[in-house]
Amino acid sequence: MHVFKFVEGKHISSRKINKSTKTMKLQLFWLALVFIAVEANPAKQGKNATIPALIVFGDSIMDTGNNNRLPTLLKCNFPPYGKDFPGGLATGRFSDGRVPSDLIAEKLGLAKSLPAFMNPNLKPQDLLKGVTFASGGTGYDPLTAKIMSVISVWDQLTYFKQYISTIKQHFGEKKAQDILDHSFFVVCSSSNDLAHTFLAQSHKYDRTSYANFLADSAVKFVRELHKLGAKKIGVFSAVPVGCVPLQRTVFGGLFTRGCVKPLNNMAKQFNARLSPALESLDKELDGVILYIDVYDTLFDMIQNPAKYGFEVADRGCCGRGSLAISYMCNSLNPFTCSNSSAYIFWDSYHPTERAYQVIVDNLLNKYLSKIY
Question: Which of 60, 152, 237, 348 is flagged as catalytic?
């Protein structure tokens, strides 16, 4: 016997009502699952669930304080460095604030700043989300680190071994393997080699062969890092080092202070050699090997500062901005600008935090999608 109910002038079978109710319940159930999945989506919350740590190698662009512990003149753990860092602290970062190591860590949802491995106050727990081994003034050429009395990229690999050993000791083999398998490893070097060490090596190399030597060294470094267990490795390109204020002042012409083309051409040669080599390596090795091109973005920022919201591109904020770096950039200099975010460069060699942020925001989404 059918029971009928009257709805808006129509009669509907109770069987149909029951079937419709079941369908609605099923739909609501699936909607609830989707809602839960969306709310739990780490990308939606600005976090990641797959990358446990950020491990960084390189030079001053990525150094968050390792040089503080070294007998080198290349330091910046004094004002006005760090004036825009939380608390206004001069931590040893070669900038007014944070550097790419920090900004990438934040982008990954790990932390707002990345600790320097040489920090004596680090506890084992502090290592879990990653560290930077970067040392200001270093390069792929071992001579670069020797000249500046800093940590070579090759010695940074030795410290990395210590890091993994410490993780194993305190948190077990499984955690160490998880970090090796799933962390993002970043390598950033070459500027100091190109800008400084080439002059000392010019009796052995011309500009092209030296750039090729550096690129081959970078590939060798990636191979060694992969042998130690790293699976997701991103390697930064060379930057337009001929456009940094110091190079403009010294080699860019007394009045024009233009970008130094021979230096930029060396950087381009390095990149032209490195990019296809890393692409081949990515096919050869298990994991992901990325070439991260920062040259074009930074060059465009320097050539078109207003496009990115900057006012000054050829001088640094610190001092008069043409030669001031390290101890020449100090709190006694009366010419340091008040608004560093209007400048692409903080001192005569290193970008401001805001410039770094523009670069990271412009590039990282493109590359991070390849390692998740």
Answer: 60
350 has catalytic annotation: yes
Residue carrying the six token digits 């337009």: 240
Residue 181 near residue 230 (C-beta atoms within 8 A): no
DSSP H helices in 41-152: 100-107, 142-148
> Can 135 be counted among the known catalytic residues?
no
pLDDT in tens, 292-308: 999 999 999 999 999 99
Contacts of 117 (CB under 8 A, 6+ apart): 66, 131, 132, 133, 159, 163
**Per-residue pLDDT band at 89 (split at 50, 70, 90):** very high
Tell me whether residue 60 is one of the annotated catalytic residues: yes
pLDDT tens-place string over residues 143-195: 999 999 999 999 999 999 999 999 999 999 999 999 999 999 999 999 999 99
Place 366 in a pLDDT band, splitting at 50, 70 and 90. Answer: confident
H/E stretch holding 167 reads: helix 153-171
Confidence (pTM): 0.86
Q: What secondary structure letter does DSSP report for 186? A: E
CA angle 36, 40, 42 (to 5 degrees): 155
pLDDT digits (tens, 9 = 90+) for 347-358: 999 999 999 999
235-246 b/e (C-beta count within 10 Å ≥ 16 → b): bbbbbbbbbbbb
Angstrom CA distances, 182 to 199, 255, 370, 372, stand at 40, 50, 13, 9
Q: Which DSSP letter does residue 56 get? A: E
Element of type H or E holding 10: strand 10-13
Q: Which residue of the set 113, 190, 347, 348 is catalytic?
A: 347
Angle ∠(220,67,221) on CA atoms, nearest 5: 5
Q: What's the pLDDT at 335?
A: 85
Give the whole-angstrom CA distance, residue 219 versus residue 333. 41
Q: Is residue 257 within 8 Å of 201, Cβ to Cβ?
A: no
Q: Quote the longest CA-to-CA distance of the chain.
A: 103
Contact 115, 98 (CB under 8 A): no
